[in-house]
Amino acid sequence: MAKPDQIQDAKLRELVADAHGLMRANRPSEAMQGLVAALYRLLEVQPELGTEQLEPRPGWKMHFLSRWPQYGANWKKGSLAAGKPEIEFVRERFALSEAITCYEFLLETAIKRGA
Amino acid sequence: MKFGLFYELQLPKPAGEAQWGPDDERRIYHDMLEQVELADSLGFDYVFEVEHHFLEEYSHSSAPEMVMAALSQRTKHMRLGHGIVLTPPGYNHPARVAERISALDILSNGRVEFGSGESASEMELGGFGVERGLKKAMWEECTREIANMMVQTPYQGFQGEFFDMPPRNVIPKPLQNPHPPLWVAASRRETTMLAARFGMGSLGFGFETPDELAERTNEYYRIVRDECFPIGHAINPGLAVLTTFMMGKTDEEALARSANGPAFFSHSLGYYYNPASGGRHQPGEKNIYDDFLAANERDNTMSARTGFIGEDEIRKGEPKDEVQRALYRAARSGTAVGTVERVRETLKTYEDNHLDVMIFVAQCGDRKHEDIMESIELFGRELLPEFKERHEKDHTKWRAEQLAGVDFPVNSSI
Q: Of chain B residues 134-173, which have a CB less than 8 A from chain A?
């Protein structure tokens, strides 16, 4: 059962729980702002995530963080490659489905990695 | 656990040829009708068909509503599933989707399953001018309004971010009340959980293992109970998973029949969904099957297996990224390939983990129609009855327990 209370870091837990509350209140744009704040906190707690690479196929590498769903809160161009991940908001309004997808990614990543 | 068939309508070009034969497209469409008719007579529960555009060789199924209309007149019992309709308005105007779904529901006497999604291939997004970064928001807005159109008399109209429409009575209305069961295509875990939050069935296109399924099932049903805010007017709790399917009297026969089907499925899917290749596709010119054969020759990573390998061995080589992992698994003959005994044993592991619907990919790559027909027949006669019996006896009870206390209206065929 993946729930915010399984997150170890108190600040990250609070940020994720707040975003969850905003989603439940049907305020997805605000939830997305909160999720990005939580994503930054996750990177503070586990900085190695910022440079972690996946190898989907032999010889083809991709940043783990490129799996973050880029619906408008996107990685700034070149920031992953430079090892300095930075989110850039290309729009302000978000749909509930977008916030939920980012929330699920964040929650699963944080819990699986013991953050 | 219930069972269905899944169709992309794959049509690899003949090796070394620039184009298909003049009868090839007619043949795969008519073969499919025959396969589904047989499955219906044997008691299969579902057929799901995709909507894809311009994905030559990978999927020639661009007008599934036409095929479903034909199937509605050839089948009596099977549920007719759109797996899925592309609902961003650049592909299909929401009112047209509502009209078609409702008309099909009437023609089939209430047997429609309404799956929706967005697609991610550059061929489709670019072909219809759908902006990649907005496609999920478009899907949500349009899918919600399509459900409203099927329910409201008259539809009250809408001014949204992606489409506007004045009040109109969108007719006909579907036979099922309030509307057919809603599903969403889910190739990642995140989307399965999104499905739960929206009260939709999850059409899992990620070739999930029984272990993954166990975790997802628990979490999915927990969210349905505790955190659901339905996108439609009735919820459709359910998890479906895709797997490759081919049977034989011996394992060797099943593997030979399976041929390059799963590997080509994976290769062509990966080709179109990887922007580096799919984004540069030369329409009408490229022969993807030739590429596939060359890749087999070069590194043997996608070739059909000559024998079965254990789960542990498969896991060792798996990519960590979920989409790449799905491609990897899709390429390997596995879950439902083999003899009656082997297929029973492997499917039972999904049944034990409370999977609602298992969907078979039978038609893929260069598999032969007669082999698919024999496999459908073998499964239908030898295995389907016992799974049906356990579904009625055990699974319906388990599912009722999962949904205890849920007070949303439910319209589900599971």
A: 134, 136-137, 139-141, 161
